[in-house]
Specification:
The structure is a single chain. By secondary structure, the chain is mostly beta strands. It has one helix and 25 strands. The chain has one helix at residues 105-128; strands at residues 2-7, 10-17, 20-31, 34-44, 55-60, 63-68, 72-77, 85-87, 132-139, 145-148, 157-161, 167-170, 176-180, 185-191, 201-206, 214-217, 223-227, 237-239, 248-252, 259-261, 267-269, 280-284, 293-297, 301-307, 333-334. The longest helix is centred in the middle third of the chain and has 24 residues, at 105-128. It starts with a strand and ends in a 7-residue tail after the last strand.
Length: 341
């Protein structure tokens, strides 16, 4: 059982390993394929194959108490994670029966308030942004590494999404300035996601073993936010949706789990539930008003979404992107600032 789960690389675990019951904390990694794990408590425990166990876990502040019936009780204090979700995990065939999560009335009220405020904030942001509307649709049956200047006046730097080795931030001489052991990091996108931070920001997403964890880095290569909205990878393509200087990125065209996110991890645009395909997506300016459209398709149909207020006049943000002939499923996407006039 995982609890105070932040993502599938950051959590507490209570369960059985070999002939022991263990209580541990996992917090990313300390080196290549070397998880940062700390055993908080353990005890001898003989589990018979096929035997069902009832695990009870109580957390209060930094105090943790976990037990299997009355036979094994493990206790510890650890401040690593103050809150999070619950999750079921096993690396051998296992059956889970039921899970019950309880909390004090005060804590339930706090959580409900947090969720309501988050939903209200995202609804307000979505209402303020252009709505996706279908521009064209038709049947089609049968059919990396980034090197750039992240800050004005600064030397160009290299951001390397190094798969299982995590993420590197290096200078042009190959000196590694930052190394983040964040799992199988892929598909970095460099763009101006936040006006309040200097230079450009970087968003990446994990695949293979830790899929769906999104990390945001500032122009110095430092992590400033992470979250886990889904359990799959994505191209995380930057999109100039509003014509203003802050870009979003497309997670996926899925109605419930996808949408466009800003540089603060908020879903600011949702796709309509209109039956559109969502197997694949791409971002391009089709209509010529500098803002991007979203192409979504599967083996049978292709739809193109534009903004409900298209075309939009006046001076608009017009970033410079990778040339189309360099597009790849493993690319690093670079979106450099620019304006229409």
């Amino acid at each position: 059982m995982a609890f105070r789960y932040r993502n599938d690389r950051c959590y507490y675990f209570f369960g059985v390993k070999g002939d022991k019951a263990i209580l541990k904390v996992v917090n990313h990694a300390v080196a290549y394929h070397k998880p940062d794990e700390k055993i908080l408590a353990e005890s001898k425990f003989n589990l018979k194959p096929g035997e069902f166990l009832t695990a009870t876990i109580r957390v209060e502040g930094s105090r943790i108490r976990a037990q299997f019936g009355d036979s094994v009780i493990l206790e510890a204090q650890d401040p690593t994670f103050a809150e999070g979700k619950t999750a079921l995990t096993a690396d051998v065939p296992a059956k889970f029966s039921w899970v019950k999560v309880t909390a004090s009335a005060e804590e339930i009220k706090r959580i409900e308030k947090f969720v309501a405020e988050k939903e209200k904030q995202e609804a307000k942001l979505q209402a303020a942004n252009p709505r996706p509307v279908v521009w064209k649709k038709f049947a089609i049956n049968e059919y990396g590494v980034a090197i750039t200047r992240l800050n004005d006046g600064a030397e160009p730097a290299i951001f390397y999404a190094a798969s299982d080795a995590g993420a590197f931030y290096a200078d042009l001489k190959g000196n590694v300035l930052k190394h983040h052991f964040f799992g199988h990091v892929q598909n970095p996108a460099l763009a101006n996601f936040r006006d309040d931070l200097p230079g450009l920001e970087i968003v990446s997403i994990n695949f293979w073993g830790n899929q769906g964890i999104i990390h945001y880095f500032d122009s110095d290569g430092d992590l400033y936010y992470d979250f886990e909205p889904v359990q799959h990878g994505s191209m995380c393509l930057p999109i100039n949706w509003t014509g203003k200087s802050e870009e979003f990125f497309v997670l996926s065209p899925d109605v419930t789990e996808g949408g466009m996110y800003d540089g603060r991890g908020r879903r600011v645009v949702q796709f309509p539930a209109d039956g559109h395909p969502y197997q694949c997506n791409a971002v391009l300016d089709f209509t010529g008003d500098c803002r991007d459209e979203v192409v979504v398709w599967d083996p049978y149909e292709l739809w193109i979404y534009t903004q409900h207020d298209n075309p939009k006049p006046d001076r608009l943000y017009k970033p410079q992107r990778n040339e189309l002939y360099n597009y790849s499923n493993y690319q690093a996407t670079v979106s450099l600032p620019g304006w229409s006039r």
